[in-house]
From TrEMBL:
Protein name: DUF1972 domain-containing protein
Gene Ontology molecular function, alphabetical: glycosyltransferase activity
GO terms for biological process, alphabetical: lipopolysaccharide biosynthetic process
Keywords linked to the UniProt accession: Transferase
Amino acid sequence: MKHVFIIGSRGLPGKYGGFETFTDQLVSHKISSQIKYHVANLSDTENGTHFDYRGADVFNVNPIKAGGARVIFYDIKALNLALKICADEKIERPVFYILGNTIGAIISYYARKIHKIGGILFVNPDGLEWRRSKWSKPIQKYLKFSEKMMTRKADLIISDNQGIEDYLKSEYGDVTSKVLAYGTETIVSQPSEADDKWFDDHQITKGHYFLMVGRFVPENNFELLIKSFMASTTTSDLVIVTNYEDNPFYESLRASTSFEQDKRVKFVGTVYDKNLLLKIRENAQAYLHGHEVGGTNPSLLEAMWSSRQNLVLDVTFNRNVVLDSAVLFDRDNLTEKINLSETVSEDLQKRSQEIILSSYTWPIIVQQYEDLFLNYEN
């Protein structure tokens, strides 16, 4: 039996972002009976207790409340509990898969502990986290240092995009790395009167809107996309699904774009209902993707499966995913691409779905991970 410890997601069931969805899908689509997953779960009340989730052993971790630094204490405490589980259950040659670079400053200590029991350390660096503008300069420096240390101490770096692997090898030299992508679901929305009411309530006409979906942060290029859209001649709306409420960036964006003067621009908040979000994607005239920091973005994969057409910022990470299935834009020509979007071939959606089915379904991704967990030799 190969025991695999997942450290760094907020736990199961997956309710939040990419790492949580990945962990949930990895567990839910498990193929091999020779793998046992142990998953750390962030809790505000429980510590050291366990519960079962689809065959995975989920252990609760309650770190101290320390603001943004709590994630560091969470990973440390999770690793300590995981090592204790290995000792108590006499687990041999476990795999520790750490998601993110948070504890890079002290990873040497834990790498020694893991290797002492015959274990293997895998790390997923989660894109270029240190470049995100939401972090202050000191935190960016810490995250960059953490990235460096994790890269040096891990037995294997798992990058979810070829661009991440290329960056790490360029930055740090001979990095032991493997590219294993993120996945997405290949489903269609189900009929729902409540979903149809959402379109009516927001005065949105199906098939006549451009769509943006993503975290409300500057590096997703909201300003560029909104300004470019406002300069276009399209009569369609721009529907923005994001967590803008009570976010200072919203007022900054209002000041820099004056979007409130254009009735086509519609911020609709976050959509948590999966079926509704899927329907919103399916009925968009086109999806606009301005993300430029990170690897294989989950929202882009979802759009490739569900949206009729994708207009995607031309950066390495995005190109590696969409290949020839999207309209690429740069900072100077998005308005032109929007104006021409109605003339783009419908074959693009077919090509996008072919790419998803060949490389990015969860069963494919899970099989690749299980092969690695079972067969990796240090």
